Amino acid sequence: MATENGVNCFQAIAYWLQPCISDDAESGRLLAYSEINVTAVSHQAFCREILDSFLNKYLFQQQNINWHDGNVVSGPSIVVCPKLSRLTDDIKATLGALDIKGKPKIMLVVIHSCEDGVVPENLLTNRPDDRISDFTNILYSESKNSCYDSFTNSVAAHDIRRFIKYHFN
User: Fold this and answer.
1) Cβ atoms of 77 and 107 closer than 8 Å
2) Distance (Å, whole) CA 56 – CA 11
3) I need a surface site. Which of 25, 46, 64, 167 has the fewest CB within 10 A?
């Protein structure tokens, strides 16, 4: 059974997802949200593939996502940032490329590429910018070409569910 830092990942997922809402109690998946705004300003195809896969695996079907090709953010949005080099530089570049109108609620999702069982030492641990209301980290394995079960990904699923619940209802 997969573990991360001595924690059974399936137990961690069950713990983190318990308080989350669901329209399908049997599957535990979110199904009712009609349009969730998502933006990626760099490596769009990569970000879209990873986040679509993650959301489909942990939360809901992909048809609920409204991917924006542009860089304008004017309402609640999930902004995806791939960690390519230095985390602070990647976040600064992502946020710098956005044209943020007003004070929308923005969740920053950082995608880290690492293999199963390896936890990156540079996970985002605090809000990097006042324009960001929420943030989370997703772990992705290039060799498996997917997100894998881990404590970090279960926390990300919980964080994204909470953001959607409060900003897309």
Assistant:
1) yes
2) 20
3) 25
Give the Cα separation of 6 and 54 in Å (integer): 23
Whether residue 30 is contained in a domain is answered as no
What is the rounded average pLDDT of the residues 49-78?
82
CA proximity to 160, closest of 127, 131, 125, 136: 136
Strand, helix or coil for residue 23: coil
What's the rounded Cα separation, in Å, for the pair 87 and 24?
36
Sequence-distant (6+) residues with CB within 8 A of 145 are none
Which tokens in the block code for residue 96? 């710098």
Backbone angles phi, psi at 114, to 5 degrees: -160, 160
What is the model's pTM?
0.79
In a domain, 78, yes or no: yes
